Amino acid sequence: MSLLKRCHCGRAKWPRCDHAWHYRFKAGGSRHEGTTSTASRREAEKVERAARVEVQDAPPANPSGRNVTLAYLAGLDVERAVAEHPDSECVAKDTEQHWRPVVRIVGDIHPKDVTDDTPYEYVRLRRTEVRRGKRPSAQTIRRELWAFHRGLEIALRKRWIRRMPMGWPELASDPIDTDRAGKIHAPEVIRDWLAELTQDARDEAVSVGLTGMRAVQLRRLRHAWLEEAPAGLGVPLLFRVPPQATKHRKQHIMPVVEDLAAIVVRRRQHTPESELVFSQESHTKTYRTAARRALDKAVERLVDAGGVDEKQALDLATKAGYGRRITRRDLRHWVATTAERESGDKKATADLLGHQRMTTTDVYLHSTLERVIGVALDVQSVFRGDITGGTTVAGIDVSTGGSSEIRTRGQRIKSPDMAAHRHLSGCLYCQSVVDAHTKMQASALVRGGSEGGQEREPAIAEIKGGRS
After folding, report:
1. Which end of the chain has the smaller Cβ count within 10 Å, N or C?
2. Stated pTM of the model
């Protein structure tokens, strides 16, 4: 046994001091050492024997680099991903998935056989591939090139190759896919969609809707990152996400509101053995199924209300926003638009979403019909005050104010008709160019076919609170 202590205790006290034992031995031509984290010699011997067995069972090292291939570099890159993100299984799976087409197209060759033209040839061949009826996106190919680059960097550090390929292809982004791009949905559409989700998927969706977290960061959340919020902030807890768990490798402090705190506490009680707050399962299929079920139930409510057949009911429900695919990215866009509209603080909105640049936040902001009408009313008020003197417009006396309250400069116009429009129509958050009046009627019919808005509000509180 090669056990030793690295403390400075007296020789009479040294064998029985409270400091941990360290082991040191040679195996496979390499020197191995480490700490046993125990002051008991008997327990330290067990740790050293386990370390020796682990070294003997490990695959042989390849210092010469003669048998190194791209598949071998892929395995080293996966090991790096696991070491950097030990709490997330998704990172290792994604890294392995990015390497798969590289090894398939380039071949399981030695890194020194990679030429300067290899990355460009890979992009050309990858662009022509069609799998499951779709071509790979530019973002997917970029991630695969990054994995390829990381593997060659590992080979360069280990001196298996002398240099990296000169120049790497720069791919332009693909045109925006309207089906996958973030979009805004009507509040009642999201509400009915949440009601059709499973408990696990609902907790994840509500958490994104309350915080705007990225899906990857959401799955990395750990209970150990929770801490009590200072008094007077209005939230009970805070999530202090470390830099290695964020996209930009910077610490992210995220407020935990009451509804999110209830979800976190309930999930902790449900799975006390797990350090992660949310499961690692994918809910993509669940989200799609829930959207179809919400559409079917909206059509049923319209048919039961009478006056329309099934085809007309489907058309009205579709115009009201039902049937569209709802994703976590959509909820993230909804959070950005709502936070900026209610607070007007774009910098705080960017910090909440974890954006590094304000231009990124601008992509997540959507102009709603309500905001466009509000701007139009503001322009009308300034026009009346500065140009017409606030008396008449086109021969109509406006001194009494009409249906809208004429404001002085700096005040907000609030119209009773606008409040009724917002109450009846959930399509104010939609970006469709379909006639707004038709959407308002469709949304009112869908809601009118249910049991009434007053009885639906407690159900929404239960969904937010995480109770099934």
Report:
1. C
2. 0.60
Tokens of 427: 């399509």
In a domain, 452, yes or no: no
Strand order in the sheet with 252-256: 226-228, 237-241, 252-256
Together in a domain, 28 and 147: no
Q: Is 83 among the domain residues?
A: yes
Q: What are phi and psi of 344, to 5 degrees?
A: 75, 5
What does the alpha-carbon distance between residue 98 and residue 450 come to, in Å, rounded to a whole number?
A: 47
**Domain at 206, CATH number:** 1.10.443.10
Segment 149-173, tens digit of pLDDT: 999 999 998 889 888 898 889 888 8
Q: Do residue 199 and residue 245 come from a single domain?
A: yes
Where b means 16+ CB within 10 Å and e means fewer, 358-380 reads eeebeebebebbeeebbeebeee
Same domain for 24 and 140? no
CA distances to 17, 32, 36 from 7, in Å = 9, 20, 14
Q: Which residues contact 180 (CB under 8 A, 6 or more apart)?
A: 327, 329
Each residue of 79-96: pLDDT tens digit? 988 888 776 667 888 899
Query: Which residues does 127 contact at the CB level (< 8 Å), separation at least 6?
Result: 135, 136, 141
Tokens of 303: 């048919």
Q: What distance in Å separates the CA atoms of residue 184 and residue 402, rounded to the nearest whole number?
A: 33
At 171 the pLDDT is: 87
User: Same domain, yes or no, for 195 and 77?
Assistant: no
Residues pairing with 238 in the sheet: 227, 255
CA 291: distance to chain centroid? 19
SS3 27: strand
Confidence bin at 256 (pLDDT 50/70/90): very high
CA dist 333 and 209 (Å) reads 9
Q: Which one, of 424, 384, 438, 437, lies nearest residue 407 by Cα?
A: 384
State residue 94's pLDDT score.
Answer: 87
Helix (H) or strand (E) holding 30: strand 30-35
In contact, 77 and 147? CB cutoff 8 Å = yes
Both tokens of 135, joined, read 């071509």
Q: How far is the C-alpha of 216 from the C-alpha of 114, rounded, in Å?
A: 32
In terms of phi and psi (left: phi > 0; alpha: psi -120 to 50; beta: otherwise), the region of 127 is: alpha
Q: Are residues 52 and 81 in the same domain?
A: no
Query: Is 220 part of any domain?
Result: yes
Give the model confidence (pLDDT) of 162-203 as tens digits: 888 988 898 888 887 766 678 889 889 999 999 999 999 999
334/225 same-domain check:
yes
Could you tell me the residue range of the domain that residue 7 belongs to? 3-57
pLDDT in tens, 353-398: 989 888 888 888 887 777 788 778 888 888 877 766 655 545 555 4
